[in-house]
Amino acid sequence: MDEDDRRVRRTRAQLRAAALRLLDDGADRLTMASIAAAADVNRSTVHQHYASVDDLICDALSGRIGEIAGALTECPFAEDRSRAPRQLVALFAAVADAEPTLAKLGPSAAARVHDQLAETLSEVLAVRFRSGQRPPGFDRVRPDLHARYVAAGVIALARHRDPAETPGRLAGQAWRLIRGPG
C-alpha cells in the first residue's frame, strides 16, 4: 500500500470524524472552515478531499447508515408473527436517534442521506429476500424489486412520522405493510 493512499484515508477519516463531532455537539450549520478547524487541517485540505460540505457529510454518515440498515440483517421476515420483530423496532429507534443530526442538514444533504439509507436498506433486504427470507406470498415479485419497495416504505414511514409515535408503533405499522394482508 502506498504511503499517499494511507495519508488520504487517514485525512478523510479525520475529516469525517470532525464533521460527526460537530453534528453530535450541536453545530447548527457546518462549513468547510468549521470542519477544517475541528479536524485541525487547512481549509484547502478539506476542499482537496470533498467537493462540498454535503459530500463530506454524506460520507461521514455512511457508517451510521450502515449500522441502521444492519438492524435488518437478522429480521425474521419469513416467520408468521403478528408482532413486529425487535430488529424492525431497532431500525426505527436508530432512525429516531439520528433525527436530531438529520434535522441539522440542509435539504440537499438530507435528501442524499435518506436516498443513501434507502439504497443501503434495499441492498440488505435484497440479499435476505434472494435467500428466501421474505414474507410469504411475494414469490411472483422479483426479490430486488420487493426489497426496493419495502425499503422505500420504511424510509417514508420514518421520514413522515408523527413525532409522538414510538419506534415500536412505527415498526408495528411497517410490519403490517411488509407482511401484507393476512
* Percentage of residues in DSSP E strands: under 5%
CATH class of the largest domain: Mainly Alpha
Helical content (DSSP H or I, runs of 4+): 55-70%
Distance N to C terminus: 55 Å
Give the gist of this structure.
The chain is mainly α. The chain has helices at 3-24, 32-39, 43-49, 53-70, 86-103, 107-130, 143-159, 167-179.
Question: How would you characterize this protein structure?
Answer:
The chain has helices at 3-24, 32-39, 43-49, 53-70, 86-103, 107-130, 143-159, 167-179. It has 182 residues and is mostly helical. Helix 1 (3-24) crosses helix 4 (53-70). The longest helix has 24 residues, at 107-130. It is elongated, with a radius of gyration of 19 Å.
Blueprint (SSEs and pairs):
Elements (H helix, E strand, L loop, with lengths): L2 H22 L7 H8 L3 H7 L3 H18 L15 H18 L3 H24 L12 H17 L7 H13 L3
Helix pairs in contact: 1-2, 1-4, 2-3, 4-5, 4-6, 5-8, 6-7, 7-8
Key traits:
2 domains, 8 helices, Tetracycline Repressor, domain 2, mainly alpha, Arc Repressor Mutant, subunit A, 70% helix, 182 residues, single chain
